[in-house]
UniProtKB/TrEMBL annotation:
This is Pyridoxal 5'-phosphate synthase subunit PdxT. It comes from Candidatus Amunia macphersoniae. One of its GO terms (cellular component) is cytosol. Transmembrane segments: none annotated. It comes from the Bacteria. CDD domains: GATase1_PB (cd01749). The keyword Lyase applies.
């Protein structure tokens, strides 16, 4: 489904952390929504973007790659400075406060006040899809694609639940951070990417007022 019709947004540059996962799909979705999108693979590139998307993948492997390429420190620096994020699946795990079944050396930045469990629904064969109701998107429901998805076990008072499955959060927002346990980039429905960009544009307008 194409993005919802909107007035033209001021150009926002979004980076997609390009270590693993559906990087091209996220880039394409943001570009269809009118944003400038680029890959982020080096420390300097973190400073070139207004926001960052961290795609799915394998969270322990992504932690190791961030360390191997000396990217953990620049990532933390930009997060501490308030850089907004859209995180999906493994990306959400990396930004959580606690990973209940994680490795001792696994990255959890604490950006999102969440406790999560990896691969909580089972293995690859247990992947599934579900219709999600997000009030800000309107109709029709958003089709969520869950692949070795994490589960959000606990969340803090500052976390807003945007969508649930079986009473458990699968989409959350904390300030300018949107975290998802599913893969919106795999659906062809750009409404969540559009919503994220509109949220950034609104914050930018408020800062300029």
């Amino acid at each position: 489904m194409p993005a919802r019709p909107r007035g033209k947004l001021n150009i926002i540059r979004v980076g997609v952390l390009a270590l693993q996962g559906d990087v091209r799909e996220h880039l394409a979705a943001f570009r269809r929504c009118g944003a400038e999108a680029m890959t982020v693979r080096s420390a300097d590139e973190f400073d070139e973007v207004d926001a960052l998307a961290i795609p799915g993948g394998e969270s322990t492997t992504m932690s190791k790659l961030l360390a191997a390429f000396n990217l953990e420190k620049p990532l933390r620096r930009r997060l501490d400075a308030g850089m907004p994020t859209l995180t999906t699946c493994a990306g959400l795990i990396l930004l959580s406060r606690e990973i209940v079944d994680g490795r001792p050396d696994q990255l959890a930045t604490g950006t999102l006040d969440l406790t999560v469990r990896r691969n909580a629904y089972g293995s690859q064969v247990d992947s599934f899809e579900a219709d999600l109701v997000l009030s800000e998107l309107g109709d029709p429901p958003f089709r969520g694609v869950f692949i070795r998805a994490p589960r959000i076990h606990t969340w803090g008072a500052g976390v807003e639940v945007l969508a649930s499955v079986g009473g458990e959060p699968v989409a959350v927002r904390q300030g300018l951070h949107v975290g998802l346990t599913f893969h919106p980039e795999m659906t062809g429905d750009d409404r969540i990417h559009q919503l994220f960009l509109e949220q950034l544009e609104s914050a930018r307008t408020e800062d300029a007022a």
